[in-house]
Amino acid sequence: xxxxxxxxxxxxxxxxxxxxxxxxxxxxxxxxxxxxxxxxxxxxxxxxxxxxxxxxxxxxxxxxxxxxxxxxxxxxxxxxxxxxxxxxxxxxxxxxxxxxxxxxxxxxxxxxxxxxxxxxxxxxxxxxxxxxxxxxxxxxxxxxxxxxxxxxxxxxxxxxxxx
Length: 163
Hints:
Blueprint (H helix, E strand, L loop, with lengths): L2 E5 L5 H15 L15 H6 L4 E7 L2 E12 L2 E9 L8 H15 L4 E7 L3 H9 L3 E11 L5 E12 L2
Parallel strand pairs: 4-5
Antiparallel strand pairs: 1-2, 2-3, 3-4, 5-7, 6-7
């Protein structure tokens, strides 16, 4: 299987939404659709038109991975929406995606990358630590369930200076 990275196009939108939800559901980190993932439904606005990037990973024409870079301030960008379909994990696709986003961040002049991932996404934690990110804090996302119950999800915050 040949894996290739390319820039997002509007024709990818439905596949990106499906990939986003499928991966989060697989890890138990899916909180339902809410304001925390509005960017997934407006990629050009949130990433491509505002100093960022959104990459798609394909295997034999099928979208199996994605990742984004979002400008968050002067010299700062956030790695977002790193997703690899479960059946394609463990093949180095996430690594290649992260390296491509870091390369793009440097080309855009960013000096610091930051990101968050849930405590449930253990593979992602290992990927970020292996690539020089360090934990700088923790926070919680909270969602109100239809029953009225609040469901907290613990998030780990990471940073990495770009040299």
